[in-house]
Design brief:
Elements: H1 3-15, E1 21-24, E2 31-32, H2 34-47, H3 58-63, H4 66-73, H5 79-89, H6 94-97, E3 101-102, H7 106-116, E4 118-122, H8 129-135, E5 144-146, H9 159-168, E6 175-179, H10 182-191, E7 194-198, E8 207-209
Parallel strand pairs: 1-4, 1-6, 4-5, 6-7, 7-8
Antiparallel strand pairs: 2-3
Length: about 220
């Protein structure tokens, strides 16, 4: 890591002693999930006889909940959308989870984060969230999981973050949120939390990282190793 960037990370950690919650997005942060998402939605579209998922649609389905993504792919509520929802109700998510890969350094980071802070997951996934965390042995590292099924208004609406504030009795300055998309950026800006952009230098964030090890500065003694 460049000395200047390391100094920036250390300065951030020193300047924010009030941090007590680390929250993370799921897709694109815990996992490289783009292949799994494309296969999942392509399967549904094939089942209803719809068009294949296009490359220019990948980013949207990566960021938004399943209902919104299906509305987008079927171009609005109608017969195709209704058929897609019927397929969704009977779908087994597990074969698609096999195409996910954990991001490098994730587990060591989560072990440290859950020891030194309260930890939360804020995701636009729905009913598959807990099953996914358990499959990859990650559930134990989160004190709170907020999925799109747990709120009336999924991200980027502030409700997910407001739930985190409530459960942990936290204020915006107490929360560090790690995300990778415009949805995450919008959520962070709307709620005033500290925002770290993961593998996306185009986002407006206090810090940009490419590997979880870069956040070792948050944990006492780790930044010197």
């Amino acid at each position: 890591m460049e000395n200047r960037y390391k100094a920036e990370l250390l300065s951030f950690a020193a300047s924010n002693p009030e941090l007590k919650v680390i929250a993370l997005d799921c897709d694109g942060v815990l996992f490289d999930s783009k292949e799994a998402n494309v296969r999942f939605y392509s399967h549904i579209m094939e089942r209803i006889g719809g068009p294949a998922v296009r490359v220019d649609q990948y980013e949207y389905i990566h960021m938004y909940p399943v209902r919104e993504s299906l509305l987008y792919l079927t171009e609005g509520a109608g017969e195709e959308f209704d058929r897609a929802l019927e397929v969704l109700k009977t779908l087994d998510f597990s074969p698609f989870n096999g195409y996910l890969t954990c991001e490098p350094g994730l587990v060591p980071f989560l072990k440290l984060a859950s020891t030194h802070f309260r930890t939360a997951l804020a995701t636009n996934r729905t009913v598959s969230t807990i099953e996914l965390l358990e499959k990859y042995n990650l559930r134990e590292y989160f004190h709170l999981v907020v999925s799109a099924s747990d709120v009336k208004n999924p991200k980027p609406h502030p409700e997910s973050m407001e739930k985190i504030f409530e459960v942990f009795d936290a204020r915006p300055e107490n929360v560090l949120y790690i995300g990778d998309s415009k949805v995450d950026e919008t959520l962070a800006l709307a709620t005033g939390v500290h925002f770290v952009s993961y593998k996306n230098p185009a986002l407006a964030a206090e810090l940009h990282i490419g590997h979880f090890q870069e956040l070792d500065c948050l944990f006492p003694g780790m930044s010197e190793k």
